[in-house]
Predict the 3D structure of the following.
Amino acid sequence: MSKEKIELLLAKMPDAAADPVGHADAMAEIAQLAADAEKSARSAHVQAVASADAILVGDEHILRTLGDFDAKFDNCDKRNEIVKRVAAAINADQDLVRDIYSIITGNRD
């Protein structure tokens, strides 16, 4: 919802007593803008939660795969390097998920 568009509608809104139909039309347009903005915000919220959940599910799959991989890998130095890289990637994912949820909740501490 464009704040400027609503401000413009409010500035141009006819007086209720002088033009009740024009006033009602402007109020209906503002109400529709608000409804559209709410729908858009809900959609963005659902998409953000789904993205965060997908990241977490992907990380769980990576950890399970890494566990299987760890049991079969015989070069400890290479295995340790891979484990470090995976752990760093998962930590970055967790930070991203925290950021997504903080934006969704509005709690950006």
About this structure: The two ends are 26 Å apart (CA to CA).
